[in-house]
Amino acid sequence: MKKTIILFLLITFQTFAQLKTLNGIVKDFETKTFLQFSNVLIKGTNIGTTTDELGRFSLTGNFNDSDTLVVSFVGYKTSVSKLSEINTDLFIVELKKIYLPSQTILIEASVGKKGFTPISFDKISKEEIQKDYIVQDIPNYLSQLPSTTFYSENGNGIGYNYLSIRGFDQRRISVSINGIPQNDPEDHNVYWLDFPDLLASTELIQVQRGSGSGVVGYPAIGGSINIITSPFSEKPKFNLSASYGSYNTRKYSASFSSGLLNNKYSIYTKLSQILSSGYRNSSWSKLNSYHLSVVRYDYKLTSQLNLYGGPISDGLAYTGIAKFAVKDKERRKDNYSYWEADETGYTYTLDRRSDEIENFSQPHFELLNEYQLNDKMKLNSALFLVIGSGFFDYDGNWSVYYDDYFRLEQNGYDSSMVPTSALIRAQVENKQIGWIPKFSYEHPNGQLILGGEFRIHRSDHWGNINYAENLPAGVKKDYQYYFYNGAKDIIGGFIHESYNLTENINLLGELQLAYHQYRIYNEKYVGNDFSVDGLFLNPRVGINYKFNEYQNVFISLARVTREPRLKNYYDAAESSAGEIPQFELSEEGSFNFSAPLVKPETMNDLEFGFSHQTNNLTVNLNLYYMLFQNEIVKNGKVDRFGQPITGNVDRTTHTGIEFSFIFTPFENLELFGNATYSRNTISEGKHYLSETQSIDISGNKISGFPDFLSNIGMQFSPNNFYFKLSAKYVGKFYSDNFDENISYYLVQFPGFIDYNDNFNDEYFVVDLYGSYEMNLFNSLTNSKIFIQVNNLFDKLYSGYAIGKEYFPAAEINFIAGIQVGL
Q1: Helix, strand or coil for residue 513?
Q2: CA gap 158, 810 in Å, rounded
């Protein structure tokens, strides 16, 4: 009995002698907030626990230095540490957030890594957006980035806004949300007002300059913008905000985040409304917004359902003003549907009618999934549906000058009745469905990503007489004077490899293959039925060399080919005015639909970059050389809706240098700035006056490309205050491709150009933002008051010009408000 007791005591002593205790805290890497209910586990054992409300944990068990500690939390990257490497009494674990748990392949492939990825890019995080976003549209918000500008049709940045990167308009910028392409398949444009207040639900924005990536869909010329919406939070939140500003601008918003429910679900929802009378006359906006996201976390599968969009309405303001009116405080607010002018003033104007309006709604449905096959491989899927429906009503008084523009006579109506004061309704119904799968494999020396893209787009277009005087009897609103169906099918795939040749050398290779097919069919009256397709191969290679942990250099080379928009092939909505398909004619006079007159444009892009990054200073320097064949450029004319008319020129060259810095001399003070100098010229090309007559414009500068751009500013955040002062300079640029040679063309081709001032003056504008965060009544912890003042020094300038039309920016204006949060 005595021996048994001694043996028992020895075993018990040995067991307790082997027991160890590990204490630690789990935090968010960026915000340093504690992560309650984090899972802490010794790998391969049943020894585990969860963290308390202060992120603390304590593990006691029979483990040794060869074991592995695994710390995980939903929505964050798992931390794996060898116990032998933990040499502290209190182990601090800081987990990095996964921006979109169901789209990590997209994040890894498309979101560049500073000092590692051989591309020129910028990132804006959710925390940065929440600091100073109030009501700005995305082009306005992004315009402080290097080589980026924007302009607004109505002047105050709410409504129709247009972005450019390196001078390239947004038709040639690839825009995606959660990896899903947003450029209109037929027109290539991005209509930002169709997803208003999206920034309030945005987790991350990456803006890449230069050739685009196959990872984010449509091939890009000027750059690509990838917006990630992942508005979930680890704790429940409820926010209410209200703002009021100049031009009767108002915003009301309510958002709710559930936090993590049952360690499996999270829900986010937001409703908002933006209202504004607009800076220019009759350029009002009413933008409603909704966003609903639900995510479910399973062991190896993450699923996310998104629904966002908003019915919008606005007053049209697509026509610019004469240049002399830009500096006139009253005339610069004019909003005409048509005007003529000389140097001294307007000689004829036609006021914009109050019933020239737009209504549109385009909900987006997304189902995002990610399945972790094992530690090295995962599958990613994005299924989506976009449904658009709406109209715009515009003045059609000019229709009386066309012979039977509305095709009334050929449909048997009284030809002696010619409609006057017509208001034309252009209607569009479209739908797009698609699937974008991706596969990722992390191998010992890097990462391989394979992906596909399958999209089907269909649309109905028609026009009718919404109102007119002197209409023939029997003509009703459902009468259509044009109708056609549009279509586009997209099938593509890409391979993307990031390979670590050594610890200091990273290679990037990417190859995108895409098949695109346009089609017009069921065209009423004219009966043109055709399709145009193309197979596009877009390669890109790059190499990054890291000198040390602070400095790196990269070089990349890419070739991108992309087709014209559908309207370049045929403007079917204007067939009654004589528009015909833009294809070569066969010997018998019929259209050869396999030979379009407008060709796809091809760009060869060579980029070089240098980066220096320390704790308080980041400096980037980029050089680029872009050589184009058949670049599609503006010719200085606009169509009936104020959109530029475009066509090919044989060869163009774009060269530039970009510089940016961020300097943090003190903890609460940040200085930032960037500058771009570029040359953008037509090496060889013609401007066609007619089918047979042309102007040689070789050597001229390309319209819309400023030679010099810069931004500079500071942000200061003492205690709970936050101040941001930013200034932007945009150099002179031409409104057409005639540049300083316009006098020559005026003499040689009299009557062709009805203006002689064809450049947009340089401008310098300063904005100010301030906020104060506070805890109201000790429970409203996420509350603040804020104010933003735009154009602080009240400069009178135009943000953009096309031909003879200039688009004025608003004078000094403000918006202020309050946010209350729980």
Answers
A1: strand
A2: 11
